[in-house]
Amino acid sequence: MPEIYEPNALDREFDEFWTKVNCFAVMDFPYDQRCEFVRNANNCIQGTNFVPYMHLLACDFKCRNVFQEHIFVSLFLILCFELLLFLSNVAHYYYTPALKVVSRMLHMNEHLAGVTIMALGNTLPDLFANMWAIYDDTAVFANCLSSALFVTMFTGGLVCYISPFRMSAYDTVRDLLFFMFGVMLLEYIIITEESVTIAECILMMTVYVIYLIVNVIDVYIIKRNLKFEYRVFCELGPENMNYKVGNERVTIEMEANRHITYRRAPSKNHRLFREFFSAILLIKLNEWRQATMLLRAFYIARAPVVFLSVLYIPLVDYELKKNGWSKLLNCIQIFLNPAFTITMGKAMVFRDRSMLWYYNIPYDFKYGLYSLVVTVPIAIVVFFHSNTSAPTPYHWMFTIMKLTGSMILTFQCLTEKSLITDVLGHMLKVSADFMGATVKFIANSLSMRK
Fold first, then answer.
1. Mind giving me the DSSP string for 338-398?
2. At 243, is the pLDDT very low, low, confident or very high (cuts 50, 70, 90)?
3. Per-residue burial over 348-379, b = 16 or more CB atoms within 10 Å of its CB, e = otherwise
4. Considering just the CA atoms, what is the radius of gyration of the chain in Å?
5. Are 355 and 400 in contact (CB under 8 A)?
6. What is the percentage of the chain residues whose pLDDT exceeds 90?
7. DSSP state for residue 323 in the 8-state scheme
8. What 3 state SS string does 108-126 have?
9. How far apart are CA 384 and CA 45, in angstroms?
10. Taking CA atoms, which of 94, 275, 369, 406 is between 20 and 30 Å from 124?
């Protein structure tokens, strides 16, 4: 009777090889064997967001030498530049104004909104990107520190050089001390133990909560002191009632911008289509005429980004004429934005790990169609109730779609750009830690910090 062979640990390791191996290990294989490796390695599918870069190089483009690889590196750099334009456009025209609208809705002053809404909103894309890579061999802590150093030192120093201003000594020292204490606390926890416990996580989050409480107390004390000084001036005499502090801050007249073009039009749809095509115009004609050749090339490269952003994300900005209102475009976005968001969200969250997530969109599109039952009637009601000359009183509700749309596009761009830098790093034999601490987060900071 033949002896039954029992698999040992080495056999089990070989059986699990394709489920555990990193896709970038293909760079160590001969060129004629790379396509088979990419097709068998699970990580080549699971580690892909939109573009399967390693599959393109090994199977579709069939790179057979270093020269061909460097040619496709240039193509990937062009794609990375386009993603930077996408990030910059979404952050500047949609994401940051949406956070400003939210802060005004919550009746926060600029300082309190900066340390709460703006700080949380600016870091959410990085938070999602880091959580996405939490199970990869990525130096998340080092990358976050490098990003914070770049924003604090380089960006802060550049702002001080371009536009010098007097910094509040107390606020600056307070914020720096909290920042230093938080970094030292996290570093101490990581060095002293192999893992971070739930209690230590709560402790680190408590530090930030204390920082917010201190800021709220500071704002309360400042307002109380201002009221006290106002009462003192009132008691001194009526001639001091018109006392003003120098260098007053200029405020945005929201109502003036809201009704700046209001007129008695022949109908509610006066110049409806002209306004619509003007809103989706990719390049402004007056800017194109005055631009140089280099700037025109920039406008052409940015055109696809502008087109996708304008169609998908509603524009709500109190600093613009009519607060960004465009009747026909906003009515289309009422049903287009939720349908696209639900379809994309369903495909990404509940995706099959054995295939690219966007292959599920044809099957998940029905969930987006279900939303049309609610959103289409709302769009019809808004269309007949609104006027082209001025935004509706509930125009601020478009901020919800603006925030969700901006966050989805930002997350996708950050994830794709992170994958591109990883591919470029492995192709150029540069370590992932170096790419993460330099190129990756410098690019994120340049495109996101507004």
1. HHHHHHHHHHHHT--TTS-GGGGHHHHHHHHHHHHHHHHHHHHHHHHH--SSS--TTGGGH
2. very low
3. beebeeeebbbebeeebeeebeebeeebeeeb
4. 27
5. no
6. 4
7. G
8. CCHHHHHHHHHHHHHHHHH
9. 47
10. 369
Alpha-carbon torsion, ordered 266, 271, 276, 279, to 10 deg = -110
Phi and psi at residue 330, to the nearest 5°:
-65, -35
Per the structure block, which two tokens stand in for 88?
């910059």
H or E element: which one contains 155?
none
- Decide: helix, strand or coil at residue 406: helix
User: Residue 163 has what pLDDT?
Assistant: 75
Over residues 370-425, the pLDDT tens digits come to: 888 889 999 999 998 888 888 888 888 888 888 888 888 887 887 788 788 888 88
Average pLDDT, the chain: 78
| Biggest alpha carbon–alpha carbon distance for the chain | 114
pTM: 0.71
> Which pLDDT score, from 0 to 100, does residue 270 have?
82
Burial class for 291, CB neighbours closer than 10 Å (0-12, 13-18, 19+): middle
For the record, the structure tokens of 366 come out as: 């029905």
User: Residue ranges per domain, the chain?
Assistant: 12-60, 66-448
Q: In angstroms, rounded to a whole number, what is the distance separating the alpha carbons of residues 170 and 401?
A: 38
Among candidate residues 384, 418, 404, the one with its CA nearest the CA of residue 83: 418
Angle between helical axes of 327-349 and 361-385 (0-180°, round to 10): 160
